[in-house]
Each structure stands twice: as C-alpha cells, then as structure tokens.
Amino acid sequence: MDRRILLAGLAVAAAGPRLAMAQASAAAPAPGAPLAQAPGFYRFKLGDYTVTTVHDGFVRRANPLEGLVMNAPPEAVRAALEGALLPTQGLMNPYIVTFVDTGRGIVAFDAGTGGGQMAPGTGLLPRNMAAAGIRPEDVTLVAVSHFHGDHITGLTTAENQPFFPNAEVAVPAPEWAFWSDSSNEGRVPAAQRPTFANTARRFAPLRDRMRMFGDDAELAPGIRSIATPGHSPGHSSFHVSSGGRQLFVTADAAGTPALFLRQAGWHSVFDLDGAMAADSRRKLFGRIAAERAQLCAYHFNFPGTGFVAAEGDGFRFKPVDWSAVV
Ligand SMILES: [Zn+2]
C-alpha cells in the first residue's frame, strides 16, 4: 500500500473518534434538560428515486375508545387496541411527510402541521428536514392529498409566507371545489368547519403556482394520483414508480393501522363519508397487498412505511425492517 495513503488513513482513523466525541458532547443536553429524541427521518431507494419520510411530531388522543371509531362500540375498539399491544388511553397519532427525490426535483407529499402552528408536540418538520438535508427551497412540487389542517397548514408560515418558496402545489380538483365553497359549511361536522378558512388562508399566496389534478393524473415523472375519496371529498393517494419498483403514498386512506386497517370497514370521526372512505380503503390497500408493494402513510407509526397483507376483514401492516444503509 502507498505509504502516504496508509498515513492518511491512520490520520483519519485517529481523528475519527475525536470527531465523534466532539459531536456527541455538542449534542449532549445540559444537566437537568429534557432528553431529545433522535432526528426523525428515514430514507430508502425506490429504483432511481430516493424516498425520505420525515417526522412532523404527534398528538395523543386522550380517550381513543370513544368518539374515534364511529361504527364500533368502545369494547370492540378496546379489544383491537389491546390486541395490538397499544394503549387504550393517550393513543399516539403521528404526522409524517414523505419526500421523493426524482433526480430532477423533490416532491413533498403534503406539507405538515406548520412548524408549531398547531397543537403542542407537532411542527417538527422544519427541524427534521434540516437533519435529513432537505431544504425547503429545493422542493419543486407539493402534492396535496386533501385539505385537513394537519396536511396543508405547513404550506405557509405563521406570517402566511410560502414555506416551500420554489414549489408548485398540486391539489385534487374535487378537494378544491369543496373546501373553497363556503356554502358547503353546513355539510361538515363543526370540528371540520375551520378547514374552509384555513383553505382560503393557506392557498391565498400560492394561487399563481397551483394546479389541479383529477384521478390518474401524472404529477411528475413516475408519480400519478389515485382518487381515494371519502375521508374528504377529493382525498387522493399517489403512486410512485421508478426502475420497476413502486410505492403507494396512502395519506389518510387509513389512520391507525390497528384500528382502520385491521377493521377496514370501521369509520373514523375524521372521515367525512365513512362508507365511501372504507370503500376507497379496501380498493387501495387491496391493490397494494396484491402487488406486495411498499407504502408510505401519513399517520402510521414512524417511519410510516411498510407493507400490507390481506387478513380477516382488513389488512395486517408490516413496518419496514429498519436498514442502516439506504
Ligand atoms: Zn391527517
């Protein structure tokens, strides 16, 4: 071996542990300070594309036994949670934004909760994007699944400036038609009424860079929409394909898998049309299961990506095995 290379290698080896120690001490919390979790991002390759799921925080539902599942009794919900070894109080609902780098741009699937504009515990997206090396200015397209606040609030800052300054924003045409028309306010539960004002506010500075899409529209090379209505009138999922591999971005076609995938016919309080949502869910996840394809979901446990198999009256979710290499 060339002696210079050998010496350089030894120098790097000697510096390595020092660097690691310096980083560790820089990251170490002050005595008495709360411990922070590791940065929340997870990365994998899909053909020529690079996919990164980024954690945007979470809220806990104090009592998931009541008022969450609309067409099952609390005992059935309790049995489903206990069967999945999940808590029956304080059930976690995470928020996860998926980014796909196509080599020609970065597509974000939904925009997150807005860096602290919603409930405490949310708003981690900017911090975790920085940890993942994804800069807001490098995002070229935001593909919006639907207009509930946890998906569009992050389109703009607290001052209502675009968070992704260079991105086009693609939205489902039926979703825009519904939530941009305040005469529909009487058709949604009171808890969803703020969505009309939030839609007007978030899209106001984005109108010149918006485009509408329908079912099976190509939004970017290898990225197509799949109409999955019910959760909201224009709810859309997405299909990503590259190099013979495929990924489904399922957004809110199903929430907590132990509830709404295992019992695919259950209606969530957040589904505007529960029966239609369940129908879309069965079609979408049935296809994913049949094709043994990978999926990314918005509210599944982080990193929010894995596989499904048909089982019983629904589907079993298998998270990816965490891989130390991309
Ligand atoms: Zn959601």
Give an account of the 3D structure:
By secondary structure, this protein is an alpha/beta fold. The protein contains eight helices and 14 strands. The chain has helices at 3-27, 74-83, 125-132, 149-152, 173-179, 194-203, 257-261, 274-290, and strands spanning 41-46, 49-61, 91-101, 106-109, 139-143, 168-172, 210-213, 218-220, 223-227, 236-242, 245-251, 294-297, 305-311, 314-319. The strands form two sheets. It has a seven-stranded mixed β-sheet. Strand 12 and strand 13 (305-311) form a beta hairpin. The longest helix is centred in the first third of the chain and has 25 residues, at 3-27. The chain is globular. It starts with a helix and ends in a 7-residue tail after the last strand. Residues 5-26 have low confidence and may be disordered. Zinc ion binds at residues 148, 150-151, 252, 298-299.
What's the short version?
The protein is α/β, with parallel strands linked by helices.
What is the fold's blueprint, element by element?
Elements: H1 3-27, E1 41-46, E2 49-61, H2 74-83, E3 91-101, E4 106-109, H3 125-132, E5 139-143, H4 149-152, E6 168-172, H5 173-179, H6 194-203, E7 210-213, E8 218-220, E9 223-227, E10 236-242, E11 245-251, H7 257-261, H8 274-290, E12 294-297, E13 305-311, E14 314-319
Bound molecules: zinc ion (ZN).
What spatial form do the alpha-carbon principal axes imply? globular
Q: How do the strands of the widest beta sheet line up side by side?
A: 1-2-3-4-5-6-7
Overall pLDDT level: 92
Alpha-beta classification:
alpha/beta
Radius of gyration: 21 Å
Instruction: Report the uncertain regions.
Output: 5-26
Portion of residues in beta strands equals 25-35%
Count the DSSP helices: 8
- Biggest sheet details: 7 strands, mixed
Helical amount: 25-40%
Ligands in the model, by name, code or SMILES, are: zinc ion
| Number of E-type strands | 14
User: How many angstroms does the end-to-end distance come to?
Assistant: 30 Å
Topology as a string of helices (H) and strands (E): HEEHEEHEHEHHEEEEEHHEEE
